[in-house]
Amino acid sequence: MSELRFTALKKLLERKTLNIEFSNESPTSYFGQNVFNREKMQKYLSKDIYNRLMNTILTGANLDRKVADQIAAGMKSWAIENGATHYTHWFHPLTDSTAEKHDAFLEVSLDGSIFENFDGSVLVQQEPDASSLPSGGLRNTFEARGYTAWDPSSPAFITNKTLCIPTIFISYNGEALDYKTPLLRSLEALDKHATKICQYFNKDVKKVFTTVGYELEYFLIDDALYNARPDLILTGRTLIGHGSAKDQQMQDHYFGAIPQRVEVFMQDFEIEAYKLGIPVKTRHNEVAPNQFECSLIFEEANLAADHSLMLMEIIRKTARKHNFRALFHEKPFKDINGSAKHTNWSMLTDTGVNLLKPGKNPMTNIQFLAFLVNTIKAVYDNADLLRASIVSPSNELRLGGNEAPPTIISVFLGEKLSKILDELEDRLPTDILSPEEKTEIKLDIGKIPEILLDNTDRNRTSPFAFTGNRFEFRAVGSSANPSSSLIVINTAIAEQLHKFYKDVEKLRKEGIKKDEAILQTIRKIIKESKKIRFEGNGYSQDWIKEAEKRGLKNILDPLTAIHIYNSEKSISLFEKHNVLSKNELNARVEVLTEKYKKNLQIESRVLGDIVINHIVPAVVKYQNILLENVKSFKSILDEKEFNEIASDRIQLIKDISKSVSLIKKLVEKMRMDRKEANNKNTCEERLRMYIDNVLPYFEKVRYYVDRLERVVDNELWPLPKYRELLYNH
Ligand code: ADP
Ligand code: MG
Q1: Which domains does the chain have, with CATH numbers?
Q2: CA-CA distance, 148 to 319, in Å (whole number)?
Q3: Which of 122-136, 496-510, 663-677, 702-716 has the lowest average pLDDT?
C-alpha cells in the first residue's frame, strides 16, 4: 500500500483521546480573564481616564495623546503582570485571515540598561508596513504606507504571551485596507438612521447597536490522514475522491453523541475561548460525518466579528493539539454538506429594545413592523450586493447545493408573519384612516407577539430568514471574513431607514399624523418589497423559474457578482453613507478578483500534481499487475479458455489505459489554458479565463479519477479515501 496512506491509517488506529485534566472551576471564574475589559480598565486606570475611555468607546470621541499614554501604561502593567512579553496590533486585511506583527516590550537604552516600553503613540497607531497584504492598488504611490489605528470599541486581549490590540488598517490617506474600517463606518451609518426612526417611538433612544450571533460550522479530520492529502493541505478541500458508500444518507451524525475525542477537543477550545471573553454557547454534531458546529451568544457586531475570527483561530490551534485539522472550507467534500457561518442579525437600542422583536403594545409593534419591513425592503433593493458579499471560490461550491441557500436572495418570514403583512397591505386605505379602522389595526398589530409566540416555523432553505427576533443570513460561507456581509447589510438598511424617514416626514408635512404616516409608509414598503418574500423550498428548481418570473436576480457568475461592488448604484450607496469610496470599492473589486483567480490557479496546479504524481503512477502499477496476470494465464491456457477467463481483465486493462490517457490529456490541456489565462493583461480577464476555461477541467478530470478509484486495488490507492477521512473518530 502507498506508504503515506498506510502510515496514516496505522496512526489512526493508535490514536487516543488526549488525556486532559480539566479543572472543576466554573467558567464564570475565568471568563474574560485574558481580556482588558471594563473590570480591568477600572483596576488599572484612574477614574478620570476610565471615564474618558468609556466615553470614546460609546461615542467615538477622540482621545488626546496624554490620555492615550495613561491607558497604554495601564494596559502594559496588566499585560506584563499576566505574562505578556510582546504586543501587536491585530487587524483584518483583505485576506480571509487576521494579521499581526509582534514587537517585544523590551527596549535597550543608550547606556545599555533594559526596560519595558509601551506608550500612547504605540497603542494608538503603528506603521506595520505590511506591503505584501492586498491593497487593490491603493498603495501604489510612493506614499504607500499602511497604518494600523486602535479600535477602542473592541477590547485588547492576551494570547500566547502577546498583548493583541484590535485595530483598523488604512493607507496613508485614510483609505480602508481592511474589513474593520468599513464595518465600523457602516455601524455608524445604521446607528444614525435607526436612532432617528426609534425617536418616533421613544425620545430617550440615543443609540442603536447592531447585534450579531454567529454559528460556525467546520469539519474535523485526523491530521495523519490530512497530511496524506496534498489537496487538503494546499487548498483546504478534496479535489478528487469517490463518495463513500455511507455518507450522510442516514442523517445519523446530526445531533448524535459527540465522539469522545472530539468532545475533549471542544471542551479544550471552549476554555480558551472563555478566557478570551468569547461566549461560546452551543456545540453539536452537524449533518455531514465529521462536521460540527458551535454558536456564540450574540454581541455588538464589531465585537462579534472579532470574536468569530478569534474563535476560528483558537479552533484551528486546539485542533492541532488534538491531532485534528479543523477545516473551515465551505465545501471540503463533494456531495456532502458544506459549512456556513450563519449570521444572526438584529438591532438593539441603548434602552434595551430588540427592534426585531415584537413588543408588548401596539406602538412597540408598529416599531417592530417598521424595522421588519425596512429590513425586507433593504434586502430587496440590495439583493445583488448581498450576493456579492458572499462570493468566494469556496462558497461558490456550496451555494445552491442541496444543503445551502441558492444564489437567489430571498426573505423568509414564516406563514403567520407573512399573513400579518398581507393583511396590513390589503386593509389599510391609502388616505387617512377612519378612527374605527385605526383602532382595529392597532388591535391587530397588538396581537403580533401572541401570534409569533408559537411560530416555530423554520425554513432552512432560505438565505435570509426571520427567526422570531432576528434575521439569519445563511448564505455566508464558513471561511469568510464575517464583516464582508455585515458591511452590506448595515449600509443597505441605513439607506432604507433614511428613505423611510424621508417618506414619513413628507406625509407629515402634508398634515398626516405621525402614527398614520408611519403606517402608510409601512404599507407602501410591504407592497414594494413583496417580490423578495418567499416561503417555499429555496432548493427547488421551481423556485429558480418563479424567481426569474418575479424579476429576482440569480447571479451565477462570480465575476459578475464581484463587479456589483463597483456598479454605479453601489458606489453611490456606499459613498452616501461614508462607508466605502469609489476608490476603495474599485480596490476591493481588484483584490477579490485577484484572490479568486489565485485560488483557482492553486487548485488547478494541485489537481494536476496529484493526478500525475500520485494517481497515474498507482494506476499504472495496478495495470502492470493485471498485465502480468493476463500473461501468466496466456502461458498456461489454450486460446478458448484464455478468452473465457481473461477477457474481463483485458477489458479492464483497456478501460484503465483509456482513462489514464484521457486524464493526462485533460491535465495537459488544463495547463495550457492556465498558461493562456495567466498571460492576460488585467486581473479581470485572467479570472474570466480561469472561470470559463480552466475550472471546467476540474470536474472532468475528477470524473475519470473517481471512476478509477472504484476499480483499482484498494491496497495501491495512494490517497486516503472519503470513507477513511470521514469516519475516523
Ligand atoms: P439555530 O441553529 O436554531 O439557528 P442557534 O442557537 O444555533 O440556533 O443560534 C442562534 C444564534 O442567534 C445565536 O448565536 C444567538 O445568540 C443568536 N441570536 C439570538 N438573538 C439574537 C439577536 N437579538 N441578535 C443577534 N443574534 C441573536
Ligand atoms: Mg441558525
Answers
A1: 31-178 (3.10.20.70), 188-580 (3.30.590.10), 595-726 (1.20.120.1560)
A2: 30
A3: 122-136
